[in-house]
Design brief:
This protein is α/β, with parallel strands linked by helices. 53% of the residues lie in helices and 11% in strands. Strands 1-2-4-5-6-7-8-9 form an 8-stranded mixed barrel. The C terminus is likely disordered.
Amino acid sequence: MSKYIVRQPIKDRDSKIIGYEIQYHGENTAFGDDKNAVPASNDFAAADTIYSFLTQNTDKLLRGSLNFMTFTTTLLMKKTPRLFDKNELVIQIDDSVIIHPLAMHLVQQYVKEGYRVAVNEFQFAPRYLALLDSIDYIKLNLKSTPMVTLKNIVDIAHSMSKQCIAIDIDREDLYQKAIKLGVDAMEGPYVAAKLTTKAHSSGYLQSNFFRLLMAITQEEPDVVEIEQIISVDATLTYGLLKMVNSCYFAARREVTSVRQSIVIMGLSELRQWAYLLSASNAENPIEEGAEEFLRLSFMRANFCSSLMNYAQQMPISKPDAYLMGMFSTLNYLIDAPLDEILAQIPLRQEIKDALLEHKGRCGMLYDLAISYERADWSRIDQLAGELGIPTNLLTSLYFNCMEEVNRIWNEITRPNPNQTAAPELSKQLQMNK
């Protein structure tokens, strides 16, 4: 049985990410998902596997954010929480830990050390109420708990300065129910893909665009560097492909890559394009919600490209797969239906069919990337098998991509004291047009 570890976003009522749920699946078990609770007979083997993985990967993969993770008694006894910084971990526990005297003693020790604690699917029972002073977050299952009970739990939690998180939100009606309850945050497939009006923006990531301005105004511009800067940003990539395939350039063949576009346009026209962008978007900085989707598109692009190293009988190339992942969120970034957006650029028909209708082997590859995001365990196994991708490689591929995306994203979003020079660069571009 394959073993997977997935991070899923937890968002507040304004759709801002407050942390990530770490879910583990393997040996027919799952942590962090009560529907697939870990059987006692498998607990030791599963705990050994996840402990081994976290020991090797926590430092580089799970730092810099708040991580919510369910701990079994065995994982607590192995002192697994100490693999995390106490400022970056929420220890989640369920009933199996609450009724175990030794496990609860360990939890109390972690509380004294400054770790935060969450309770999965809080109940109105004495053993849960006795924990209120020691916990920080209460997880609520809106599907299995009566509305009156949920409301009482939320009211009590808020009166004691505890935060409530609704879990497994996979439909609009559950999302609206959570909002009505007044929960502090939510998680689930619907929440992960929730589109807010703020996310509709045709802007670009300003810090990355500034790096593009710097790169193209060098005396000897580096085409590889320029390509890398543009390829990180879905809106810049889309805009460039749309421009170079316009009647103005009258390309003999459809241009489908960033590198081709740069070569065909030439540095002079590229500077002009960048100037037009800087002028048209000067008062339209990208919204925070849109930045989240830009990052998601970058992650999907890298993951789809990595999967191509193992997928069999694929009708597209790795660069095509990269664009497929990159453009999967364009309808969140540009206020138009995805089919209308994709009709304006020369993508392979297989990619359009995958993004719009989930058809063909490209659709299977795209669905595999999405299923991994959503921790859809059975669907992951099915799709990987049909594509010929060894399931034992998926977790390492996913986290390798995450590490690379995090590294690059931190670089391009890091505040740059020289950004005050942006207006001068725009003037320089105008003079060179």
